[in-house]
Inverse folding.
């Protein structure tokens, strides 16, 4: 019987992956050969259970040797190889054998979908890999790492031709953060490549992979240098050249060198004028340079491009949700909330799971000030019927301090039977912020000392009684928390809370470190949300001003976001005596405009523009001020203000 397929694998400590991998090819391949390079877990046993023939191999830091040990045992006419952290897509099962029936093809490139990121937020990046080829004794892998066989086949068989197996897809999970961290792949790969480069300094494919490992280790400037050198010795017709270009751009961008990235993009677009990734990352670089309109043009071009060729390995969303997101961000920068909402909605339609766009939509709707309107708008646009959708919205409302809405959606989630310990904790937090203290305490009292949420529950219980001014209960809980073993900084904040209740006229100022200040600012944010400004004053009056010096801006933003205009104005004026800040002048201008003090507002808008001339909202708000001011001033001043407004419109940022 012809066209038998042998799956050949090399593995080590893959008990968490190998079953999924082998299940994906069950009934599709004719034999499974697994070469184990030193597993200390149940990998070999699971492989045998799944029908594999398992062989041991003494690891020698050479992937090709291990690969060749697997294929030399294969009896099929075709070799198909996977790694344990991969699987054959379900829709590919019925078509694999069809490609092996083609008589004039020696091997195939196959589409692979790489899953990238953290387990809570995963993204995809497609690529092409050479994974299916005829089993001939002269075809053997070469290279200690990123081992190659396609080039070897062409060397051995000048007439060999390759195909693209468009209907076969491999899914790869090895780039997930958890997989990389677990196996320490970055450092392992780097050491092997460095050793190989000592004997093969002119191997530029190896140098390309070396640059990739440097990039993953966040050595961006070093990676860029390696990538550029590789590109100068690589033909643009090479299958990985588009990815190499993108890596150069990403390395320069990540190294804080957007101008160099843009130079590379300009050169790359001459060779690949339809490469969406270059337009998208060009947009990001221009945003970093505050060249907003040029960035907008590149993002718009990216979304207009057709499906990308497989060899581009185009990153997911560069022609869709990612580009739309930044188009929305640019619209917001120019204070065009309507256009921003349109782009954020387009982003979500392209990828309903892209939470950053949803967060932006909710922020524009201002759920703290307009809870019912926000809810009404979201119900018109999104399907909120599932428990998961409700939980996502509850978490966003919680993060944005819209505790009434967060509580509403959390309670709906709990009603579906999904009342986890963390969801109940968040409900208690929201209840406190809604002054429903008794209900919150009932939940908080339900956490036992063996729960990972117990310290947070006790802290919130303490906060609950402290806000109500119950001194005895506050002291009792402080003692309970001390018995748990607290850090010095947490201990100091608890002392601060106790002393603030005593209201002595003469107090010793307490010095807090960064951890203590972070906790204090979190408490102040909650107190301002509760309109407990006196309690905030009591706390701040007992803190050494020196340790607050680097956090003045944080305090200003807390008062500003909570709507305490008079206090934020006083803090801003004090801040500007020692700091030159365009944003501080802008916030001060906004406060004066809201109170009708147009002349003072104009002065601070001018200062803001002088300090940061590339910030569009400063100009736009000044123009808006002039239009409002003009309606209520003496006729002889109209011409002067109009001239000032025209000047402001003429100095638009790029």
């Amino acid at each position: 019987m012809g066209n038998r397929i042998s799956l050949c694998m090399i593995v080590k400590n893959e008990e968490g992956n190998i079953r999924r991998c082998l299940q994906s090819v069950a009934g599709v391949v004719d034999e499974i050969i697994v070469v184990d390079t030193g597993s200390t877990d149940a990998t070999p046993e699971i492989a045998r259970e799944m029908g594999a023939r398992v062989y041991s191999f003494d690891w020698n830091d050479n992937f090709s040797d291990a690969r060749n040990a697997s294929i030399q045992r294969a009896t099929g006419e075709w070799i198909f190889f996977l790694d344990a952290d991969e699987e054959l897509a379900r829709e590919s099962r019925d078509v694999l054998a069809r490609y092996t029936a083609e008589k004039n093809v020696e091997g195939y490139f196959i589409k692979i979908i790489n899953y990238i990121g953290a387990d809570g937020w995963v993204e995809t990046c497609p690529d092409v890999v050479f994974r299916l080829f005829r089993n001939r004794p002269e075809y053997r892998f070469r290279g200690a790492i990123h081992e190659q066989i396609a080039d070897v086949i062409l060397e051995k068989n000048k007439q060999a031709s390759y195909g693209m197996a468009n209907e076969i897809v491999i899914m790869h999970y090895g780039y997930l953060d958890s997989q990389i961290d677990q196996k320490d792949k970055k450092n392992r790969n780097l050491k092997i490549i460095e050793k190989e480069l000592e004997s093969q300094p002119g191997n530029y494919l190896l140098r390309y992979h070396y640059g990739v490992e440097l990039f993953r280790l966040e050595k961006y400037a070093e990676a860029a240098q390696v990538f550029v050198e590789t590109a100068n010795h690589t033909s643009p017709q090479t299958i990985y050249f588009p990815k190499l270009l993108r890596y150069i751009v990403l390395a320069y961008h990540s190294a804080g060198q957007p101008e160099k990235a843009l130079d590379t993009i300009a050169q790359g677009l001459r060779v690949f004028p339809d490469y969406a990734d270059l337009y998208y990352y060009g947009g990001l670089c221009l945003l970093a340079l505050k060249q907003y309109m040029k960035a907008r043009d590149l993002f718009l071009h990216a979304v207009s491009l057709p499906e990308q060729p497989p060899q581009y390995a185009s990153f997911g969303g560069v022609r869709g949700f990612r580009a739309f997101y930044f188009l929305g961000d640019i619209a917001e920068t120019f204070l065009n909330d309507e256009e921003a909402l349109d782009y954020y909605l387009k982003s979500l339609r392209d990828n309903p799971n892209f939470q950053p766009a949803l967060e932006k939509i909710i922020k524009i709707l201002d759920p703290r000030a307009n809870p019912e309107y926000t809810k009404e708008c979201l119900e018109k646009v999104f399907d909120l019927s599932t428990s998961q959708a409700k939980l996502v919205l509850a978490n966003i409302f919680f993060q944005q301090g819209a505790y009434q809405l967060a509580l509403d959606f959390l309670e709906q989630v709990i009603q579906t039977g999904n009342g986890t310990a963390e969801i109940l904790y968040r409900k208690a937090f929201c209840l406190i912020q809604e002054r429903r203290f008794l209900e919150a305490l009932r939940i908080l009292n339900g956490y036992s000392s063996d729960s990972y949420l117990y310290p947070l529950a006790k802290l919130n219980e303490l906060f609950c009684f402290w806000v109500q001014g119950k001194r005895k209960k506050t002291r009792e809980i402080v003692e309970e928390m001390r018995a748990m073993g607290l850090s010095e900084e947490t201990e100091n904040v608890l002392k601060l809370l106790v002393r603030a209740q005593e209201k002595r006229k003469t107090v010793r100022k307490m010095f807090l470190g960064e951890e203590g200040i972070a906790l204090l600012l979190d408490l102040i944010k909650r107190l301002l949300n509760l309109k407990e400004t006196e309690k905030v004053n009591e706390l701040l009056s007992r803190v050494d001003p020196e340790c607050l010096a680097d956090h003045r801006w944080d305090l200003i933003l807390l008062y500003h976001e909570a709507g305490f205009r008079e206090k934020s104005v006083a803090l801003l004026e004090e801040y500007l005596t020692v700091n030159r800040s365009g944003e501080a002048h802008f916030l001060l201008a906004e406060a004066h405009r809201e109170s009708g003090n147009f002349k003072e507002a104009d002065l601070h808008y001018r200062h803001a523009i002088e300090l940061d001339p590339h910030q569009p909202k400063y100009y736009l708000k000044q123009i808006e001020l002039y239009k409002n001011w003009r309606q209520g001033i003496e006729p002889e001043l109209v011409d002067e203000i109009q001239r000032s407004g025209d000047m402001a419109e003429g100095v638009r940022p790029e």
